[in-house]
Specification:
Length: about 120
Amino acid sequence: QVQLVESGGGLVQAGGSLRLSCAASGRTFSSYTMGWFRQTPGKEREFVARISESGISTYYADSVKGRFTISRDNAKNTVYLQMMSLKPEDTAVYFCAAGRSWVPSTIPSRFDNWGQGTQVTVSS
């Protein structure tokens, strides 16, 4: 019901910042919990952050808490991930995902729609 396209990935030095965007097409964007996940070769997709439909509630993985900020602009059908103090271990393909209604979960399978991902590489 919603199509997602990530952008904003790239190369950055350790300690730097990067802002990812996820543009959604569809009339029901404001009805979805939105999440960011990341994946590296040989590992399972892992949870990064999520935000509720209204943007009131947010939740972060311990590994990024205090450094990353998730936000959304429902008027623009867009969710963002502001990444600061980036570390080499943050290197991964980042995916945005949408879950119908309220999805209080960090499990990828609980989310219904996925973007194609954008590569983030942090050099040391």
